[in-house]
Write a structure and sequence with these properties.
Elements lengths: L3 H49 L3 E3 L21 E3 L12 E4 L39 H6 L13 E4 L23 H7 L5 E4 L16 E2 L4 H4 L3 E9 L14 H6 L2 E6 H10 L8 E2 L2 E7 L6 H10 L1 H4 L3 E7 L3 E3 L3 H10 L5 E4 L7 H10 L5 H14 L20 E5 L2 H16 L4 H13 L7 E3 L1 H7 E3 L3 H6 L22 E2 L2 E2 L26
Helix pairs in contact: 7-12, 10-11, 10-13, 12-13
């Protein structure tokens, strides 16, 4: 039997356990109450901040992507921005944040990509070289084509000056009849960005670009150039200065949907008819659709080439994206991959590579004079004009702008009002001054940037060399000596002569003669050889 003391101890222990458990329950209830209060206060704070924000409100929606549909985003990220009520949403207005469906990755496949370490100094190859670039597959790249156009800041409507009899209005004025001889006042007004603008942009005469304007196009091709295309690739050869380079590594999807246009003058056209597979029936060489420009406005073939290069939006008014490639380059990457990498992924409307060595306009001008790219007096006049306007040598004060000098042989752009204005005023500088477009690029860019928030994606030149392969101009190729033919018969190696014996009357001492010291022999290679980039 239990004693009274044992019963008291047992009762005390039971009371102690009950008290302890009660304390724990009270503590748990207090913690739950506190968590609830924090949650309510936090929700109130978030809702208050969201309601006070003028720019963004948040919502959760579901998007269904069919086979032929494209995401609403301009770049693959953890969310997509857009305005379901208006395709032409201005920056700063309310936008919906729409989360992607679970099937899309939350990070871009190239997010983890980085350049490999450089080789040791002794193994580095001299000169500019291509560097690695992370591309999506053509199918994945096409899936990321933006559904909505890039928003053109401020400028919404751009029209062009038409004048049947343009005349010079200033003494010593540069320019041409094709460009309309814009005055300095016209030039200044073209940089005053407004919602609606009318500017000089070539083709000032005639009823439409290519029809009685100078740079005239055959009547049967003009309707084709008015058709809608999401993407085109364009190039030009004038003065039979280059040889046509067939693009490679182009997907079947791109071959089917993307037209490739090559502009040529009559001189180049005659050369093509006599030396290639070109026929008047199909007007094609490989992927390239040949378009002949008649009545070209300039005697300088390179200046004529700037017309399709900078004024593609005038020749193809219903195109969304274009890739310009100088004829000295061979395209070696699919156009969809290029657009995704340099426009859509970076949320850009225009992309061009920076010069691999020079980034200052004044240095570029001296290099042009040293290489006799143009007459020195004209280059000096242009640079002095820009200097009086306020152009200064490039310094780090211009960051985040990293260069004032492009390697302008490729241009990747979306055709929207602000990019069309930029290439119009850039062309007007080329028309007024020298045809060296590297000298006028920064002036046209910076004067627009003074008025609106807009930037150009200036990517590394080694990245450009990844998607195009540079070959020689035609005159260089024609002057090259053909590579030495290999012989099927292997000749035996001559026996070594003992030291001191004569060869052709000269002693063989095993040492180099004074005339041989310091000389290096270089093997010449033809275009397309394995040692050429």
């Amino acid at each position: 039997m239990l004693t009274s003391n044992s019963k008291d101890k047992e009762r005390s222990l039971s009371l102690l356990c009950c008290w302890y458990l009660g304390r724990r329950r009270v503590a748990m209830l207090l913690l739950l109450s506190l968590a609830f209060v924090v949650f309510v206060l936090g929700s109130y704070t978030i809702n208050k901040e969201s309601s006070n924000s003028p720019n963004i409100h948040q919502s959760i929606e579901t998007i269904e992507f069919g086979i032929n549909q494209t995401p609403l985003s301009r770049e693959l990220s953890s969310f997509y921005t857009g305005d379901s009520s208006n395709d032409q949403t201005t920056r700063g207005s309310d936008v919906d944040i729409i989360h992607p469906p679970p099937s899309l990755p939350s990070h871009h496949p190239c997010d983890s990509f980085s350049f490999p370490p450089p080789p040791p100094p002794g193994l580095r190859r001299p000169g500019p070289r291509p560097c690695p670039v992370c591309y999506l597959s053509p199918e994945e790249a096409l899936a990321h084509m933006p559904k909505h156009p890039f928003e053109s800041p401020v400028l919404k409507n751009l029209t062009f000056i038409h004048e049947e009899s343009p005349v010079k209005r200033e003494e010593g004025q540069g320019g041409s009849e094709f460009g309309g001889y814009p005055s300095l006042e016209d030039r200044t007004n073209s940089f005053d960005i407004k919602e609606s603008m009318t500017v000089h942009c070539g083709f000032v005469k005639g009823t439409k670009p290519g029809h009685q304007t100078g740079f005239d196009i055959d009547e049967d091709i003009l309707p084709e150039m008015d058709q809608f295309h999401e993407v085109i690739v364009a190039s030009a050869i004038f003065g039979k200065y280059d040889l046509i380079q067939e693009p490679v590594n182009i997907s079947e999807m791109a071959r089917k949907n993307i037209p490739f246009y090559m502009f040529v003058d009559e001189e180049t056209h005659s050369y093509l008819k006599n030396t290639s597979s070109y026929t008047e029936d199909n007007k094609r060489i490989g992927l390239w659709r040949i378009i002949v420009a008649h009545n070209v406005p300039y005697t300088d073939a390179r200046r004529n080439g700037k017309i399709p290069k900078l004024l593609l939006h005038r020749l193809f008014p219903n195109v969304k994206y274009s890739i310009w490639v100088d004829a000295k380059l061979q395209l070696v990457v699919d156009p969809y991959q290029i657009l995704e990498r340099f426009l859509w992924r970076t949320n850009s409307s225009l992309a061009i590579s920076k010069h691999y060595r020079r980034f200052d306009v004044f240095v570029e001008a001296e290099a042009n004079k040293a290489a006799r790219k143009y007459d020195n007096a004209s280059i000096d006049y242009q640079v002095e004009f820009y200097k009086k306007e306020g152009l200064t040598p490039y310094t780090d004060a211009k960051l985040p702008i990293t260069s004032d000098v492009p390697e302008g042989c490729t241009i990747i752009r979306e055709h929207i009002p602000i990019t069309s204005l930029f290439t119009c005023v850039w062309f007007n500088e080329v028309d007024r001054f020298t045809s060296r477009d590297q000298l006028s690029f920064a002036v046209a860019r910076d004067k627009i940037r003074e008025k609106v928030d807009w930037s150009i994606n200036m990517f590394l030149d080694c990245e450009r060399r990844n998607f195009v392969k540079q070959v020689y101009h035609r005159d260089v190729l024609l002057n090259m000596k053909p590579p030495r033919a290999s012989s099927s018969k292997v000749l035996p190696e001559p026996l070594p002569l003992p030291r001191g014996k004569s060869v052709g009357g000269r002693a063989n001492t095993g040492k180099k003669s004074p005339g041989q010291r310091g000389k290096r022999r270089h093997r010449k290679v033809s275009a397309g050889g394995r040692n050429m980039r």
